[in-house]
Each structure stands twice: as C-alpha cells, then as structure tokens.
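>> Question from a student workshop board

For tomorrow's exercise we were told to take the sequence and the ligand below, predict the bound structure, and bring the output to class. My setup keeps failing. Could a helper post the expected result so I can at least see what it should look like? The ligand is hexanedioic acid.
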Amino acid sequence: MSGLSEQELLALAKRVDDAAMKCEEIVKLSATLDDLDWEDAYTIQRLSMQRRFERGEELVGMKMGLTSKAKMKQVNVDSPIYGHLTSSMQRSSGDDLLMSEQIHPRVEPEIAFIVGDKSIKGPITAAQAWDYIDGVCAAIEVIDSRYEKFQFTLPDVVADNASSTKFFLGDVVRKPEEVKDVLGNIGMIMEVDGETKQVGSSAAIYEHPIRSFVALVNMLAELDEELAAGSIVLAGAATAAEFVSAGQHICLKTDALGDVFLNVKE
Ligand code: 0L1
Ligand code: MG
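>> Workshop helper replied:
Here is what the output should look like for this input. Compare the format with yours to find the bug.
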C-alpha cells in the first residue's frame, strides 16, 4: 500500500530528475519524508524516467544493482535492485565521460547482455533465459548518485534510478554459445591510468551474471512487466566502484570479452 499521494510522487520524481539533468546534488529524499517505502521508490523511479521519455530519450534497457553478496550484506538486503537505461546514457568503448555532465561519478566493471528479438515475460529459469539472449559483452557502468556525499537509504537509491548515469559497452560481443561455459568466472581488472585499481571476477555478480538477468526478468514479472526485445541489461558490478576525475584514462580488461575504455574529460 503506497504511503505518498500521486502529487507527492510526481514532485519527488521531478526533484531527482532535475538533479540529474542539472548535475546538482540534492538532499536524500528520506531526509524530509517520514517513510519512503520500496513501492513508492520504484514509482518515483518510473515517473522520473517518464519525464526523460517526454524529453525524447528512449528506453534501451535495464540495470541491476547491489548484486554482490558483500554489498547486499553491507546494506542489509537480500535482493538486488534495478534501474532503467536510456539512449542518452549509452556510450561505446573509447568515448569520453564528461565531468560537466556528472556530479561525483564512479566506475564499475560489469557484464552486459543484449536481448534478441523476442521480449521476455517471467518467471523464467537460467536455462530459459539463454534462449532469449543474443549477445554478451563487457561494460563499464558509471554511477553518480544524485544525493549529497553519495549517501542514501535503499528506497532513496531506488528512486534515483539505482544511481545510474552512463554506460560504456565493449566492442567484443560474444554469442551465448561462445561464452556460456566461462561466463560464471571471467577475470575483470579495472585500471586507472594504467594502474590496477580493482581486480574481480564475474562470479561476484550475483554468483553468476545470468542469475542477475533472471532475477531482473522475475522482478519485472511480479509487476506484470516484460523485458523488451533488444534490451541491454547491465548485470551488476564485479568489484567495488572507483571514483574518477578529469584527465584519467579508465580501462576494464577482461579474460574473455576484450577491453572497454573511456577518457574522463572536463
Ligand atoms: O550499480 C550498482 O550496483 C550501484 C547501485 C546503487 C548503489 C550505489 O550507488 O553504490
Ligand atoms: Mg552497477
């Protein structure tokens, strides 16, 4: 049962959307609300996305967040969260990340799935999920909480589209049959200016990235929603996130999915 009125939800969606658009940090929503529950938080997320769609952005996919056991334990939840990916957030390996379009960005090494030409309605199993997937690649997600000091409660971060701001997709896109057997343990190294900053494995992504994909489809199914054909799905991070600053060259190196890089500019 929702605790906030429609008018309040719309006003909160405008607040997070304005912060993202103007690159201005805001006080977390929960600081001024008695109670912000998960249902209202996802409604605010959807309403803020609606504002983007009205400005001409298109939905290109979904992201999963808080998919590592360590992070879930740290914030005391037992399920991941999701957010929406739009056309204005999408970049290719080698593109620039502009600090003028961000607040306090961090980068995360991720695995992305590309859905084929059939939409997916859960519940599904991992074995069924593979039949819908057309490609798998490495990706760097840039997260940039709109909240002061990157601090929030879980409903806050859900309302803020799971902190997502940009994502850079790798050029090497493998077919499911090429990576299925190794996807559960792909080594991932994040370098900043050639120096190793994070080392991890795709195993840290909800124990296996395909499990994260399945969890997304099944969470959407609980709301009677489908995952659209052609969607890009960011499955989650293999390591902790790294803050970045202008002038840096960020490179994600992977065992089986090539490299993804970006240059941070003013
Ligand atoms: O993509 C993620 O796992 C991040 C989810 C939101 C939490 C954060 O901003 O660190
Ligand atoms: Mg992420």
